[in-house]
Amino acid sequence: METTANVLVGLVAALHVYILVLEMFLWERGPGRKLSGFDATLARATAPLAANQGLYNGFLAAGLIWSLIADDPTGFRVQIFFLVCVVIAGLYGGFTANRRILAAQATPGALALAAVLLAR
After folding, report:
1. How many angstroms separate the CA atoms of 56 and 50, rounded?
2. Distances in whole angstroms, Cα of residue 5 to Cα of each of 47, 68, 76, 119
3. pTM tops 0.90
4. What does the alpha-carbon distance between residue 76 and residue 2 come to, in Å, rounded to a whole number?
5. In this structure, are residues 79 and 56 in contact, taking their beta carbons and an 8 Å threshold?
6. Rounded CA gap, 64 and 82, in Å?
7. CA distance 12 to 60
8. pLDDT, tens digit, for every residue of 76-107?
């Protein structure tokens, strides 16, 4: 179960690196505009906001990666902290911005969190 938990944490970290790239570097291009649904003008106007969001997603990814390489008990505690942050961010985004965030961010984070807790 520990291997499954670590794989899920790694996948959540990779997802947040992907979100970082979309929001920080591709927001005004095809992939970012497809994600947001914004036209070129709105994408340009919101690019600084998206980049800020992307930076926060990068911090989540960094924390999850740290949790995978840190020895226990630190690694376990860091996993719990950052996965809870992912779930809360996903819930908040899902209820305030776009319901798709619930499936794209909150659900993977919650599954990884459950696996980490069950592996203990």
Report:
1. 10
2. 34, 10, 11, 7
3. yes
4. 11
5. no
6. 6
7. 9
8. 999 999 999 999 999 999 999 989 999 999 99
Please give the pLDDT value at position 120: 86
Neighbours of 31 (CB within 10 A): 13
Question: What residue type is assigned to position 56 of the chain?
Answer: Y
Residue type at 49 in one-letter notation: L
> In 10 A of CB 96, how many CB atoms?
8
Residue among 9, 38, 6, 10 nearest 22 (CA): 38
Token pair in block for residue 118: 């069950």
Give tens-digit pLDDT for 17-71.
999 999 999 999 999 899 888 999 999 999 999 999 999 999 999 999 999 999 9
Listed residue (105, 3, 115) closest to 61, CA to CA: 105
**Cα–Cα dist 73/89, whole Å:** 24
Give, in degrees to the nearest 5, the angle at Cα 103 between 46 and 16. 55
| Chain centre to alpha carbon of residue 7 | 15
In terms of residues, how long is the chain? 120
